[in-house]
């Protein structure tokens, strides 16, 4: 394969689960990270949308958030049972203790840590996220940020994202964090 040389010479031993707020870059960085490692990329929201043939917003509107959360847990459990991959989750997934336990037993969690200002700059122009479809989306994002950050701190690893980092820069920083853990990323000679 022409691009094999681009792949870091390392074997992924556990599924890397990206967690963090909406707009942190879990989907975008996860895809870039998977390409760099030469492993599959999965996104729990995309899996749920494909299975339902509906958008996340449609699922929330028709079936409600508790239904979505059950689907999210099922997808995460199923993907953690498979070959190690990069799995980007939706921002609420890590809030569930049962999900955190599955991830910690079978994968490794990486928190993409971003400031509230950066998150808001990324999500403000999109209306795809049902939890922000309120009269005060910035207030909703702020409340979620304050409630969730203490939980994201429970992740195994954290990587700071900054406004001047590209998607690929951030993927590189996640790789650096993973490289400190040979039980997750085994170097190949
Ligand atoms: N490091 C980055 N630099 C520039 N844009 C980014 C970066 N990370 C994410 N983005 C952009 O921000 C938006 C939200 O990213 P996304 O990956 O959907 O976040 P999440 O899955 O965490 O909600 C997307 O438009 C994405 O392209
Ligand atoms: O924070 C949340 O609870 C959610 C985040 C979204 O995913 P992203 O974090 O990828 O935007 C999506 O799962 C859904 O809208 C709920
Ligand atoms: Mg996403």
From TrEMBL:
Residues where Mg(2+) binds: 27
Binding-site residues, substrate: 45, 69, 91, 148
Residues reported to bind ATP: 23-28, 129
Subunit annotation: Monomer.
UniProt function note: Catalyzes the specific phosphorylation of the 3-hydroxyl group of shikimic acid using ATP as a cosubstrate.
UniProt family annotation: Belongs to the shikimate kinase family.
Protein name: Shikimate kinase
Source species of the chain: Litorisediminicola beolgyonensis
Organism lineage: Bacteria, Pseudomonadati, Pseudomonadota, Alphaproteobacteria, Rhodobacterales
């Amino acid at each position: 394969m022409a691009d094999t040389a681009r792949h870091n010479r390392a074997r992924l031993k556990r599924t890397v689960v990206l967690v963090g707020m909406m707009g942190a870059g879990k989907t975008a960085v996860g895809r870039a990270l998977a390409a760099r490692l030469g492993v599959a990329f999965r996104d729990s929201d995309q899996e749920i949308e494909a299975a339902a043939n509906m958008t996340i917003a449609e699922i929330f509107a028709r079936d409600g958030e508790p239904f979505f959360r059950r689907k999210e847990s099922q997808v995460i459990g199923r993907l953690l049972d498979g070959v190690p991959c990069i799995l980007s989750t939706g921002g609420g997934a890590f809030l569930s203790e049962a999900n955190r336990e599955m991830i910690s037993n079978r994968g490794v969690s990486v928190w993409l840590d971003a400031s509230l200002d950066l998150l808001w700059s990324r999500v403000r122009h999109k209306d795809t996220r049902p939890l922000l479809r309120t009269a005060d989306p910035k207030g909703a994002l702020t409340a979620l940020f304050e409630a969730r950050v203490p939980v994201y701190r429970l992740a195994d690893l954290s990587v700071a994202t900054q406004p001047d980092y590209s998607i690929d820069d951030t993927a590189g920083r996640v790789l650096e964090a993973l490289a400190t853990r040979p039980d997750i990323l085994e170097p190949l000679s």
